[in-house]
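subagent[fold] <- orchestrator: predict structure for attached chain, return tokens only, no commentary.
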Amino acid sequence: MPVKHLLLIAILALTAACSSNEPISENLSEAELYQRAQTDLDNRNYTSAINNLKALESRYPFGRFAEQAQLELIYANYRNQEPAAARSAAERFIRLHPQHPNVDYAYYLKGLASFDQDRGLLARFLPLDMTKRDPGAARDSFNEFAQLTARYPNSRYAPDAKARMIYLRNLLAANEIHVAHYYLKRQAYVAAANRGRYVVENFQETPSVGDGLAVMTEAYQRMGLEEPAASSLAALKLNYPDHPSLRDGQFVPREREEDSRSWLAKATLGLIDGDVPRPQSSTRASQDVIRQYENAQQDLPRDLLPELEEAAQQEEGPRRSWWSRLTFGLFD
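subagent[fold] -> orchestrator:
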């Protein structure tokens, strides 16, 4: 983005901030305040419009423009990049006027405010992957659009709300897949399989269903569960034969198992491995006991170590020389 554009945005924001500090005359009538707010909205001076609409509502709460001013306030906050204020104003209007003929507009703007909540100034100009962002606002937007389409299916805003719901549903499903792959990288295979199954069961007809089956297959294979892995793989091959995880009909895991060896073991290709793998039967409790024993042995006073070594030698027998070890005891 050119620097001049950033400077222009900064100047406009500073100008809007300065204009918002202008006092509103106490002598203005309700109609004059509403007209000033409409002029500000036409000129896209949303900060000033918000101030005039708030003044109108506080001074004339039962006037003929009060309800319309509350609706206009939702729109002004939304266009002023204040999603929290827009959602709060929409919730207030819905609570105060549930039977208003334009209440569907409040539901729609509330959903739009949540829809754009994560799309700040940088997100509009930078190629950010929205599927990797926090899905909270997207989930709220989906639920709010769902309320609109359920309560007012014939609303003029329902078609656009349904189109946005499809996008949001795909986004939420893709976010679940990102989380599942994060669990695969961390070798949390049970959590990864649960995420994949959740996508398959709750986000049907989205592009991420195939990814969910692939995650389930990989997680079950890592855990050694052959039957569920084979079932997931069969469903993947049947419904998504062109999935990237399938090559020549064979499943290729996307995530590699992390190499938990030390850097010395990796550098020497395992010839010098300081971390000896524990047996599979070793439990976390036994590992803690061994660790406590090793720590206690290191903390022993030095004057006791010779006595302990001598006792160990008596139990193991006399210590053999290096020549004896080299010739396997033939010349001992």
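orchestrator: received. Logging for downstream: The chain has 16 helices and two strands. Residues 168-268 form a domain with the Serine Threonine Protein Phosphatase 5, Tetratricopeptide repeat fold (CATH 1.25.40).
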